[in-house]
Amino acid sequence: MAAKVISPGLSTSVQDLGRPGHYHVGIPEGGGMDRFATRIANLLVGNDPGAAVLEATFMGPELEFTQSAVIAVTGGELPPKLNGEERPTWESFPVKTGDRLSFGFLKGGARAYLAISGGIDVPVVLGSRSTYILGALGGHQGRTLKAGDELPIGEGSGKAGLSLPVNLRRVWNSPAELRMLPGMYWHRITEAAGNRFFEETWKVAPEADRIGYRFRGGTPLEFVEREQPFGAGSDPSNIVDACYPYGSVQVPSGTEPIVLHRDAVSGGGYMMLGVVISADMDLIAQLQPHTPARFVAVTLEDALAARAEQRAALARAEGYLAG
Amino acid sequence: MSIRFNFGGDEHIFGEVSEEMSLTSFFTGLSMTNAVRTAGIRGVTEICPANASFQIRFDPDIVRPQDLLSELKSMEEAASKAAPVLKTRIIELPVFFQDPWTRETCLRFRERHQDPSSTDLEYSARINGYATVEEFIAAYSGQPWFVSMVGFVAGLPFLYQMVERKKQIQAPKYLRPRTDTPKLTIGHGGCFAAIYSVRGAGGYQMYGITPAPIYDPTRKVRYLADDMCLFKPGDIVKFKAIGRDEYDATLEEIEANQWQPTIRECTFSLTDFNSDIYGTNAKLMELINGR
Known about the structure:
The complex is a heterodimer. Chain A folds into 2 domains: 2-163, no CATH class; 176-311, Beta Barrel (Cyclophilin), CATH 2.40.100. Helix content of chain A is 15%, strand content 30%. Chain A is built from 4 helices and 20 strands. By secondary structure, chain B is of the alpha+beta class. Chain B folds into 2 domains: 4-82, Gyrase A, domain 2 (2-Layer Sandwich); 88-289, Cyclophilin (Beta Barrel). Chain B is built from 8 helices and 12 strands. Chain B: It comes from Mesorhizobium jarvisii. Chain B: This is Carboxyltransferase domain-containing protein. Chain B: InterPro entries: CT_C_D, Cyclophilin-like_dom_sf, PxpB. Chain A: This is Biotin-dependent carboxyltransferase. Chain A: InterPro entries: CT_A_B, Cyclophilin-like_dom_sf, PxpC.
């Protein structure tokens, strides 16, 4: 059983829930940037929530199936078409041998997740099937898909017609509000710069991928003056190279903040203003370039409450699909 | 010394041992991360030592962030008093300095450099007070380096040379990063050397290239079959300057999968090192030369 890639889309890769445990040698956890959508896509087709799916960015691939299966598309509003006929998102539907799956234009969000019953059966590398593109590791030959690829599919047993109601899906607002815990090297910037950072509306830059999201349009930061510590480098935004948390907000030269995501570079020499909370990482995955966005300061308690809320929302969705 | 702890969002604790780089700070960070690993704390998912800091990632659904922070703080005193002795290994890595590939890349991105009229090596030799590129390379490959961090991308080591501070080689990064760096380039930025494990963007000055793969996601290279990344924080590395002939010969052996780097187990004591830097280094280097 396989799915043949007729056209790959813009940047489509095999992802699951990632491979934590190797960040200390620079290998990021990876996995679907929108974890909620990754899990739900799998559950809709009867897979384990951590089975491998396809993550399509901005534009969908075109696939041909060599056997029957049940599939579902979640995440961004990228309408699937089966043999040219539109199918709903967030709902499982059957495909047969020779069927062609393509996609219409993206109507919302940025990334869609395609689950196929049985899961995409590429080899497990370091505990995961996720593609780490920068390191040419995992997934389908360590890279994004190309025309002519054949993706092996496992044995599945999904049912068609299962869907997640609209009220259980994730919604995103504009401007996007990214909640962030200030910290790390926050003390390096002036109070005025810190206030402005949260007051201003930023825009997602075109440089937005699995490694990180860049933001543009705000005022450059003013740094607190100091003599640069030995080994840090001469720019006031430089630090002695340190680890970068997932979600960390670095500002090279104080101009454009970059929020690191699931394929983060694990460390480097730029100061960070803090870290976007875990509950808002999925949201970043669904931001298109030019989307207005604001950073909102929260406390650790707020972050944990938001995390618990998200866990509850996931449990409701999972409960509904199991029910 | 007191570690500056900080929550990195709801899933990370960041600990800065010091703002500036020093081997003492690196050792404290390494002792902390070793202690955390040994403690086997439930909910800890990633333990990452860095140059003068470290990072612990955790699942706050399993361990409460404040509890983990208290536990880390309780380890701090023991870590700072721990005998700075490390059981580690010394690895000899052949490097072809002034190679044609980094030179070509260096010329291609000249307009992004501080000194477009010199090569990266000429510039770095000059600003570090060396009369010639050859003397600079001799200093670079003459004393060993500590792997003080692995990261940025898979398997990329940051290296800190085991010499006194006034002898540390320092160089700024390119004014604007290059969009290309050959795979296995030996680069330098700030006081750190780095080996680019994969081809890609980069801002470090480029000095040479090693024929030895240091990261192999396919695990076909014989010495990377178990661990796809060669380097770990705490490893000691000695560069061996080689010419074109030895580079080509080594590459041929690597392609036949018959080559492997010289690696020897060793014990490093920071106290011994601080009292006699070059004597300590000489003993370490004997381990790889006395074969």
